[in-house]
Write a structure and sequence with these properties.
Length: about 280
């Protein structure tokens, strides 16, 4: 195991910060050995078989090409749950866990919920896991994402209704909801140059970027959709770009939403919005 750690460090130290490298090493060793993080420490003198070394070399080669560790391993953790991921879906982020946390504090346990742009299904699935009495629906424009999300729900034994939908072209739904949530694409194309290549070269374009000419397009369309398809008093939740929180609040107030709140993440960035339909 010590040798494996050395091998990882010498091959990947140019690609990651010291802190990132520690976490990448732990994830790789855990995946190859099947040990939990604690078991790795206890078993640090164990040696890898030739087969395990081959698997590790393969992972390290993929990481050297820039592929995110979550895609290399095919899985990641979100809200303490294990999610399968591949390059069809955005890798779930910690700030989205904070959005889910906020929702869990605010919404009724038996709510009818819709997650728009579900990707891996992380928001919808975490909500259903922590609120088993909720009736959860989730949609995405992308069929491959819906396949990943449905597998994730099945692996976790959770019943969620997934459907395909282009929210930019949808006005009415068959049912009304108590809660609508979305973490839509929100990075203006002009910011592409500032986005890490590990993100822009590998994660789905459709999940990330919006036209510079209308960066709030998804917020406006989803807020219009929610006007028609939320029950009165229903809640709308968004994750937002840290520079667009106030603009999103303004947009929702202009559309007559009540109690519009902007919330900061643990780093002090304005990343979450909640509004109530009158
Ligand atoms: C930022 S990702 C969020 C994924 C997931 N909800 C999460 O939080 O990790 C945005 C998602 O919106 C989906 N999407 C993009 N355009 C869409 C559209 N017009 N209608 C519905 N979904 C769309 C993308 O396929 C992607 O899965």
């Amino acid at each position: 195991m010590q040798q494996a750690i050395q091998f990882i460090r010498s091959n990947l130290s140019a690609s990651y910060s010291t802190l990132e490298l520690q976490s990448v090493s732990r994830l790789l060793i855990s995946k190859v050995s099947g040990y939990s993080f604690t078991e790795i420490i206890v078993n640090k003198n164990t040696t890898f078989s030739e087969e395990q070394r081959k698997i590790l070399r393969n992972y390290v080669e993929k990481l050297k090409s820039g592929l995110p560790i979550q895609y290399v391993l095919g899985e990641t953790e979100f809200c303490g749950l294990n999610f399968m991921v591949n390059d069809a879906v955005l890798i779930p982020r910690p700030e989205t866990e904070e959005l889910v946390q906020w929702m869990l504090e605010e919404i009724e346990h038996d709510s009818l919920v819709l997650d728009i742009g579900t990707g891996s299904g992380c928001i919808a699935i975490a909500l259903k896991h922590f609120l088993p009495g909720a009736d959860v629906y989730a949609c995405d424009i992308d069929e491959d994402s819906l396949g990943v999300a449905a597998n994730n729900a099945e692996n976790l034994g959770l019943k969620i209704s997934f459907f395909q939908c282009d929210i930019l072209k949808t006005e009415k739904s068959d049912r009304k909801y108590h809660v609508i949530v979305s973490n839509p694409p929100y990075i203006p194309c002009s910011e592409r140059k500032d986005v890490m290549s590990r993100v822009k070269d590998f994660e789905p374009e459709r999940a990330l970027f919006v036209k510079d000419s209308d960066p709030l397009i998804f917020y406006r369309k989803i807020a219009q959709f929610a006007q028609l398809n939320l029950f009165p008093g229903g809640n709308l939740f968004f994750e937002v770009h840290r520079d667009f929180g106030k603009a999103c609040v303004q947009l929702l107030e202009d559309m007559s939403y009540a109690e519009v709140q902007l919330k900061k993440d643990i780093f002090g960035n304005e990343r979450m919005v909640k509004a109530v339909k009158k």
